[in-house]
Amino acid sequence: GTFNLNKIGFYAGLDENILEVRTIQSVIPLNFNFLYNFFDQNLEFSLQTQKLKPIELFSKNYKKDELIKLKDVSFSSITNFAYDIKQNQMNYDSSGSLIFPKESLYDGFDISYALSGNEQNINVEYINVAGQKINANLQAEYIYKTMQLYGFANISDFTLPNGNVISTELFFDPLDEGFM
Q1: What is the percent of the chain where pLDDT is above 90?
Q2: Residue 1: what pLDDT?
Q3: Is the dihedral of CA 137, 151, 48, 64 positive or negative?
């Protein structure tokens, strides 16, 4: 099928040594900002959404049941990213939520998260999943160079299709290189 990107207004400008691209206010709850400084070689990116329904970004005749189930999924986020090309240093952080209504998947559930990092590691402050058939969370940190992961995942309850419920905890301990 054919998908069309719905109207999102953008502003693009070049002033002195700075390139800027950003969204212009619209009915779609999406705010995007990109800056690049050619002189300093710094790049910045930010994204904010408030109950954005990602499927509404595209126009399509939804005939498949799977896509119809996802039409009311919403996403809220505040995300920032900065990269200094000269120093090869980056920083990022993101927090938000993804909401799957009862009619969508698995009787509905909410995912909330907060993470941050740089060129050396990523810190997952939390990922929480809460719903009628699942409750789980994750807290972890991963160091890229040594592939070290530490933290834990907790599945408080997960209802299987047969009605049985399972639960478990996983702990990640770093080794000199890698994890167990």
Answers
A1: 64
A2: 45
A3: negative
Kindly tell me if the per-residue pLDDT of 6 is higher than 70.
no
What's the pLDDT tens digit per position in 37-77? 999 999 999 999 999 887 777 655 555 666 677 778 899 99
Cα(91)–Cα(122) distance, rounded to whole angstroms? 10
- Listed in sequence order, the residues at least 6 apart from 53 whose beta carbon sits closer than 8 Å to its beta carbon are 71, 72, 73, 74, 75
Query: From CA 12, how far away is CA 139, in angstroms rounded?
Result: 38
Whether 135 contacts 129, CB under 8 Å:
yes
151 forms beta bridges with 140, 172
Dist CA 107 CA 51 (whole Å): 19
Rounded Cα–Cα distance for residues 126 and 141 (Å): 10
Q: Give the single-character DSSP code of 57.
A: G
For 11-18, the CB contacts below 8 A with 24+ separation are none
Cα separation of 149 and 40, whole Å? 34
Strands annotated E in the chain: 4-5, 10-15, 18-23, 30-37, 42-52, 58-59, 74-84, 89-100, 109-118, 121-131, 134-143, 148-159, 165-172
